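Task 17 of the worksheet. Students: predict the tertiary structure of the chain below and write it out as structure tokens. Keep your answer in the requested format; marks are given for formatting as well as content.
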Amino acid sequence: MVNLPFLRRCVLSAGSLALLAGFGAGLAGTIVGCGAAPGPGAIAASGGGESTGGATAAAGEQAVSAAEPQIRAFCGGCHALPSPLSFPRDDWYHEVQRGFDFYFQSERRDLQPPVQAEVVRWYQSQAPEKLQLPDLSATTSPRGFTRREIAADGKTVDASVAVSFVGTLSPVAPATQPRLLISEMNGGRIYSLDPATGDQVEYAAGVQNPAAVREADLDADGHPDLLIAELGSPLPADHDKGQVVLLSDYRGAARRQVLLAGVGRISDVRAADFDADGDLDVVVAEFGWHTTGGLHVLWQERSAEGSTFRPQRLDSRSGPIHVPVTDLDGDGRLDFIALVSQEHELVEAFLNRGDRFEKVQLFAAPDPSWGSSGIELTDFDGDGDQDILYTAGDAFDSYLIKPWHGIWLLRNDGALKFQPQQIAALPGVHRALAADLDQDGDQDIAACAMVPARALQAQPGTPTQSVIWLEQTSAGKFVRHVISDERPIHAAMTVLDADADGDADLAAGCFAETRSESKFSVLLFINAGQSAAVAHQPPGAQESAAAR
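Model answer:
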């Protein structure tokens, strides 16, 4: 399973977008927590961001204080007001400049822009010199994990290996173990992999830049199909090249059909019978970029001539990443939950009311540069309802590790109320999955991270961990264990029993930034069951007992 670091790569920073009051159609809920900006007293106490001295400095402070209401109204015009704490002091000149550029390019004219220099001073006077780095202290793991490397096969010849999705396929008799399902974004490849032997089977889906792929039987013929989210470009752009592609009977005749075209970059697709008519419809996350994006439902309509899919646009905001399906309110109709990133940074439920979908906000991050990266549904506390594992770790906007980057549990308290709990910090976290890794009867968490080299260069000394597991030692209490502390390059991960021994193993896809780094496509971390550190098995492959 995956989130997509490539969705926002090379975009202007979320902090810049935040200053573009009116960019997109964002919703701003009640903002609480650490994103709230300090009041005028904090500004006066901090003294101001420029070294001018005497009466000039005092006059500048007074001007900034007088302009604060206008600054707040302008910079928080359609989403959460960006916190001064979200960027280092020296970054704010650039962030404000780009934000003003965006505002004037948007052609929105219903807000009164403050003086740009006063906005810079307001932010710099409250901003830290540097962002605080997280504490990643860990304890010795009660479980060992043996690492196995699946070497890149060389078929992606013109670009770096960029695994955008890792999932599993249903086993084919007589086999009882699932194969890994992998999409490689740069190479336009979709293939399955036997985790025991490394054997690969490629599927000719005719895609260029797949972001995600799901197995489902959309035509109800008893043969599984592949439903594919096609970005249409490897890097962010506003265009109409995104597609939803169906590869019917992928193990047999492999018939290709485009279900949706002429849209922005598609990040996720899920199949579900939303109208309870006996066939599967499709919910689509169109990430887009700046002027494109949205949420769609493709309604399957059957006739004697076959099936067609009627598209309905539900939302036009940029930034949707994941759209998992569940009956959240228990009314017997399937709903879906959407993670909407960019400057919105929201988790929202789309409740199926039969003739429409009702949007309900479940979580609003307190800052528009929060860096949402993924959600996963799970009944984490075993109380019979769906909780949400949420990750914030996108460092491809500003190339900064933010102090709040990490893994969060949005605990379902009932009545569509979710209580956020930060479980652990993890720079660059892109995926968090629930699994009972130590087989003690409760849910633990496995997580992987991807941090761009530029972010590490910008913040020397940043502690990083590539793959971790969080042992739940008592209800809601967790202990961090490091599985891999190499440079984080994993945007995709899934849980499976790769060696058929009855416990949970991990498969993490490799997302290399350069061709020279493209050594492996997947790293397997096999749950060895005993304590000690992770052992290492090189490509050719004899296991080593050497501790990492």
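Marker's comment: The chain is about 10% helix and 35% strand. The chain has a mean pLDDT of 85.
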